Amino acid sequence: MCKSVTTDEWKKVFYEKMEEAKPADSWDLIIDPNLKHNVLSPGWKQYVELHASGRFHCSWCWHTWQSPHLVILFHMFLDRAQRAGSVRMRVFKQLCYECGSARLDESSMLEENIEGLVDNLITSLREQCYGERGGQYRIHVASRQDNRRHRGEFCEACQEGIVHWKPSEKLLEEEATTYTFSRAPSPTKPQDETGSGWNFCSIPWCLFWATVLLLIIYLQLSFRSSV
User: Fold this and answer.
1) Binning pLDDT at 50, 70 and 90, where does residue 9 land?
2) Where are the membrane-spanning stretches (predicted)?
């Protein structure tokens, strides 16, 4: 059974894989919740994991939810003279849509997911900091187009302008079909034939004309009997 990964375990996986990838260099991983997208100091590089998967737990109402739209931001810097590098990481949070609490909740991940995410980070690091080519990124299940609409108003990454969700073609087709049916004219009221929207053959109108006819007949009979 997979367990949720803590900050120390994030570092453990990263250090082990960097020791294997670049044994001659020393790298450090720092969690920085204030990291900003596209705001880089001179010499720093950026990598954004747009399709991670994580589970969130509301600290207010205890609601939990799974999201395949988790965003992780990395800033990387290599000092070639000192043979030392640093990675700063920020995992974007989400708001609970059940209780509407303003508290941004952190996510937990499975260890098997961290392995792939760190592999992607190291691939980007080797390309941008070492100028190497030929790396291959691991494609996660969460990176596939999702058939559920992402609620960007509850996503910290979306609120900071990071575009990371695209609706699937199936979802777009379903929404287009729903919109078409909702806008379609009623079969009993063809708009091209009844410009004013009045249907004089409807049941209410038939009852109205029948009542008028009966009233006329009644008045005629009453008039004749009086004569």
Assistant:
1) confident
2) 202-221
The values of phi and psi at residue 15, to 5°, are -65, -40
> Are the C-beta atoms of 162 and 71 separated by less than 8 Å?
yes
Are the C-beta atoms of residues 33 and 27 closer than 8 Å to each other? Answer: no
Q: Name every residue whose Cβ is closer than 8 Å to that of residue 213 and which is 6 or more positions away in sequence.
A: none
Q: What is the pLDDT of residues 146-204, one digit of tens each?
A: 555 678 888 999 999 998 766 545 444 544 454 444 454 544 444 443 344 455 566 77
Q: In DSSP terms, which residues pair with 167 in a beta bridge?
A: 146
If one counts the domains in the chain, the total is 1
Query: 58: which 2 tokens?
Result: 């509301």
Other C-beta atoms lying within 10 Å of the C-beta of residue 109:
22
* pLDDT at residue 118, rounded to an integer: 94
| Location of structure tokens 């949720």 | 4
Tens of pLDDT along 60-70?
888 888 888 88
One-letter amino acid at 161 equals G
Which residue range forms the structural domain that includes residue 30?
7-35+45-166
Residue 226 backbone class (left: φ over 0; alpha: ψ -120 to 50; beta: rest): alpha
Return the bridge partners of 105, or none. Answer: 94
The CA distance from 132 to 134, in Å, is 7
Enter the DSSP assignment of 28: E
Distance CA 53, CA 218 (A): 78
Could you tell me where the beta strands, DSSP code E, fall in 80-200?
Answer: 84-91, 94-95, 104-105, 107-108
Q: How confident is the model at residue 46 (pLDDT cuts 50, 70, 90)?
A: very high
